[in-house]
């Protein structure tokens, strides 16, 4: 796929690594273009662009910024009508131990409201950057899962294909309204990792038999 990646922090860098490893063509951008260039220099098939040049003809955008920066960052790309946007953000408090919104809305829903015409998917938000960078295989050959919620069947299938190309199992999490649950799961995962001391090589999974 041809993908635009916004964000050069831990999650953005991990995505650049994994997308490159899977052979995707990536345009990366961020507030600091020099940092985007530094990330791009580490990986094949990854090029850094200023925000207004980063979209090109790409049909998929991954927003890997802080939630409060996501709308502005997406708008800086230009016209996103009809694009598939994968939102990995979580509306975290300053200490990362809580959410600033929830129950009656979600970060994903608020981003979608601000960007009409975008086909938005919530996903990858339940993964630590360290997990994303290390890949989907855990102890005892357990395979990690990515939960995907969207009101667009096309966008969700695009995200499924992308996640599976990186080796992840996928779980259909229904409509975008269920981002409210996914963001809460992410918040709990962060508590387990940092508050309960389980570390950052953990991830939620749904089991079946």
- The CATH homologous superfamily is named NAD(P)-binding Rossmann-like Domain
Gyration radius over CA: 16 Å
**Annotated CATH topology:** Rossmann fold
CATH architecture: 3-Layer(aba) Sandwich
Counting structural domains, the number is: 1
**What structural class should be given to the helix and strand makeup?**
alpha/beta
Shape: globular
Helix proportion range? 25-40%
Strand % is: 15-25%
Kindly report the spatial arrangement of strands forming the biggest sheet. 3-2-1-4-5-6-7-8
- Number of E-state strands: 8
What is the CA–CA distance across the termini? 33 Å
Order of helices and strands: EHEHEEHEHEHEHEH
pLDDT < 50 stretches: none
Describe this structure in words.
By secondary structure, this protein is of the alpha/beta class. It has one domain (2-195): Rossmann fold. It is built from seven helices and eight strands. It has an eight-stranded mixed sheet, with helices on both faces. Strand 5 (84-87), helix 4 and strand 6 (119-122) form a beta-alpha-beta unit. The mean pLDDT is 97.
């Amino acid at each position: 796929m041809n993908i635009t990646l916004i964000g050069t922090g831990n999650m953005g860098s991990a995505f650049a690594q994994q997308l490159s490893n899977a052979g995707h063509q990536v345009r990366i951008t961020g507030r600091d273009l020099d940092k985007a260039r530094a990330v791009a220099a580490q990986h094949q098939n990854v090029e850094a662009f200023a925000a207004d040049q980063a979209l090109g003809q790409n049909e998929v955008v991954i927003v890997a910024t802080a939630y409060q920066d996501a709308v502005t960052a997406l708008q800086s790309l230009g016209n996103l009508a009809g694009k598939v946007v994968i939102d990995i953000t979580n509306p975290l408090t300053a200490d990362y131990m809580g959410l600033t919104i929830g129950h009656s809305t979600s970060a994903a829903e608020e981003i979608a409201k601000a960007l009409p015409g975008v086909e938005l998917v919530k996903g990858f938000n339940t993964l630590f950057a360290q997990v994303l960078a290390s890949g989907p295989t855990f102890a005892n050959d357990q395979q990690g899962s990515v939960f995907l919620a969207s009101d667009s069947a096309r966008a969700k299938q695009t995200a499924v294909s992308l996640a599976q190309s990186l080796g992840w199992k996928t779980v259909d999490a229904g409509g975008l309204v269920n981002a409210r649950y996914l963001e809460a799961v992410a918040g709990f995962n962060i508590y387990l990792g940092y508050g309960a001391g389980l570390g950052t090589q953990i991830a939620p999974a749904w089991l079946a038999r």
